[in-house]
């Protein structure tokens, strides 16, 4: 243990004789960036060689992963990450209940995140990764629910078999070191994926208001008086029938947009000169949680009458709706439709594996970039097996599938990064060291699990959760080059901002590349909205990857693709940048 600690200190300080990269990280440890590190991955003929190597390299640091956590900064990080994770968890949990007809909801989401988070904190090679519900997987769960309803299959039974298939697929991929396939996922596909998911977030938020208006039309007193008269009631205030309310639509829109604008405003504070730096960061980091809390409190105080759709939560720790769930703690598949369920589950597992694989592996690579300053390493193969095992457990207990949340994971790493002024440029902050440990991940996961015991206290307005959904849809577009290049259609050439492609390419060539991406966004959106094709949108992403590496090189030169489909080098690191601008992956 002493030798390991001394080795870590040598790596951080450069005493092992290695030339130091920016931030105090040895160049021979992490000198490759995201693209180069993947290109160097070459599969071997030894089965599970990659997973065993990951485990063998990371295991010697296991003891130090707990002793290194004995710092005050780790306690602060636990509090910070709990609030950073709980708001998206509640939001996705509430929407999960809506999309799955309450077979799984907020309680199940919180318990799944707690269970998977503890397992991940104990056994993963990269404990900085936060396991959480994510937008792409939520959209997939909604599509799977619709398909099961059409085929008259039990959703949780299908998910039970799908969990087994996912774990087997993960084992097969890891056995032959399939992580090398990630090198084919470029920014071209990531941007299409991000824009599609953001579009769904925004559409679902607006559609929620539209459906609310259909059930509760904005009409005058006489309209509702006639409705209640037909139900043998003459007083509008008496509501024995399930009729709409004249103020529900207006209140729903007010709460949704109030949550959205408050969250956006608090995030904007980060880039202003108001308050001090730490206060600005608090507002930026906890903006979503503050927005939900403030709006929920005002709604409860001003509109206590239950005329608004609210998050369904049991009074005590229990499943969201035991009757609709149809299973106990463990899912026992129904024998009547088992053969069909197994077949549907196999197809669903392959498709959801694509999402889990891309999100987990890209998040892991983002954390291993040299500017992050990590020295203990990670393990893409071993961690993929662990993700598959977590999916298997979630399917067994009838819980939502969890995978890596890129934004929260990057925030987790940043909160444990200690910086110092660069000796050559005092105005620039560089990484001195990172507190690499497992305790914060485990503690945050346990706190999230304990939050599920609050029960009916979490009966938040659904409009507020859709306000967060709208916020995530807009924020997911931050830093996406496709959005910036689309804006170039409306900007005169002399005002084009300076990037690698505006400096080296003709404008019409840039527009051609953008139009191709926009057409593909429309195609995958149409597939996603189809009743029978919605489940296949991850497969369409695979086709786009093939299209990128076969057709696109015939249209654009190597130099043009290097400018359009590669990360900007030497990008300035600003204080107002956060997880949304660090990655094109949607939350």
TrEMBL record:
Which cellular component terms (GO) are annotated to the entry? plasma membrane
- Reaction(s) the record says it catalyses: hydrogencarbonate(in) + chloride(out) = hydrogencarbonate(out) + chloride(in)
Major location (coarse):
membrane
Q: Which GO terms describe its biological process?
A: bicarbonate transport; monoatomic anion transport; regulation of intracellular pH
Any one GO molecular function term: solute:inorganic anion antiporter activity
Stated membrane topology is:
Multi-pass membrane protein
What is the residue range of the signal peptide feature? none
| Bicarbonate transporter-like transmembrane domain residues | 229-568
Pfam families with a match to the protein in the record: HCO3_cotransp
Record's keyword terms, sorted: Anion exchange, Cell membrane, Ion transport, Membrane, Transmembrane, Transmembrane helix, Transport
What is the recorded name of this protein? Bicarbonate transporter-like transmembrane domain-containing protein
């Amino acid at each position: 243990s002493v030798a390991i600690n001394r080795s870590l200190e040598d790596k951080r300080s450069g005493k092992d004789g290695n030339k130091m990269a920016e931030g105090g990280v040895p160049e021979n440890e992490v000198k490759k960036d995201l693209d180069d590190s993947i290109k160097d991955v070459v599969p071997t003929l030894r089965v599970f060689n990659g997973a065993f190597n990951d485990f063998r390299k990371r295991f010697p640091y296991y003891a130090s992963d707990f002793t290194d956590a004995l710092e005050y900064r780790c306690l602060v990080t636990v509090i910070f990450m709990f609030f950073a994770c709980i708001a998206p968890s509640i939001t996705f949990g509430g929407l999960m209940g809506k999309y799955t007809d309450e077979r799984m909801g907020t309680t199940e989401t919180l318990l799944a995140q707690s269970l998977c988070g503890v397992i991940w904190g104990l056994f993963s090679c990269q404990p900085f990764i936060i396991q959480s519900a994510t937008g792409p997987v939520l959209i997939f769960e909604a599509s799977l629910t619709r398909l099961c309803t059409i085929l008259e299959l039990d959703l949780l039974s299908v998910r039970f078999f799908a969990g087994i298939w996912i774990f087997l697929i993960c084992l097969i991929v890891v056995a032959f070191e399939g992580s090398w396939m990630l090198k084919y996922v470029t920014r071209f596909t990531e941007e299409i994926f991000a824009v599609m998911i953001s579009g769904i977030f925004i559409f679902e938020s607006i559609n929620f208001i539209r459906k609310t208006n259909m059930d509760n039309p904005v009409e005058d007193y006489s309209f509702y008086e006639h409705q209640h008269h037909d139900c043998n009631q003459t007083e509008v205030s008496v509501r024995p029938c399930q009729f709409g309310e004249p103020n529900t639509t207006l209140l729903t829109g007010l709460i949704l947009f109030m949550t959205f604008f408050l969250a956006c405003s608090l995030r904007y504070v980060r880039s202003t000169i108001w308050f001090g730096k730490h206060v600005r960061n608090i507002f930026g980091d906890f903006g979503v949680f503050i927005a939900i809390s403030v709006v929920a409190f005002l709604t409860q105080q001003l509109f206590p009458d239950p005329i608004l759709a609210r998050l369904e939560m049991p009074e005590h720790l229990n499943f969201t709706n035991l009757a609709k769930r149809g299973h106990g703690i463990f899912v026992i598949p129904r024998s009547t439709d088992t053969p069909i369920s197994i077949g549907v589950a196999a197809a669903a597992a392959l498709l959801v594996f694509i999402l889990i694989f891309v999100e987990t592996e890209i998040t892991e690579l983002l954390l291993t970039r040299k500017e992050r300053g990590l020295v203990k390493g990670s393990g893409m193969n071993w961690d993929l097996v662990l993700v598959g095992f977590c999916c298997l457990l979630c399917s067994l207990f009838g819980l939502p599938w969890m995978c890596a949340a890129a934004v929260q994971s990057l925030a987790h790493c940043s909160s444990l990064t200690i910086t110092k002024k660069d000796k050559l440029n005092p105005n620039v902050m560089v990484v001195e060291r990172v507190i690499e440990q497992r305790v914060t991940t485990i503690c945050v996961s346990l706190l999230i699990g304990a939050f599920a015991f609050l029960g009916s206290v979490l009966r938040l307005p659904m409009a507020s959760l859709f306000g967060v959904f709208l916020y995530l849809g807009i924020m997911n577009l931050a830093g996406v080059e496709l959005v910036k290049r689309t804006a170039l259609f409306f900007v005169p050439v002399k005002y084009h901002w300076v990037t690698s492609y505006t400096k080296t390419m003709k404008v019409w060539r840039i527009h051609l590349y953008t139009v191709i991406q926009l057409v593909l966004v429309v195609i995958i959106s149409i597939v996603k909205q189809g009743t029978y094709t919605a489940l296949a949108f991850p497969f369409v992403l695979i086709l786009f990857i093939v299209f990128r590496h076969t057709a696109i090189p015939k249209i654009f030169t190597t130099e043009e693709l290097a400018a359009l489909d590669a990360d900007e080098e030497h990008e300035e690191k600003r204080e107002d940048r956060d997880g949304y601008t660090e990655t094109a992956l949607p939350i």
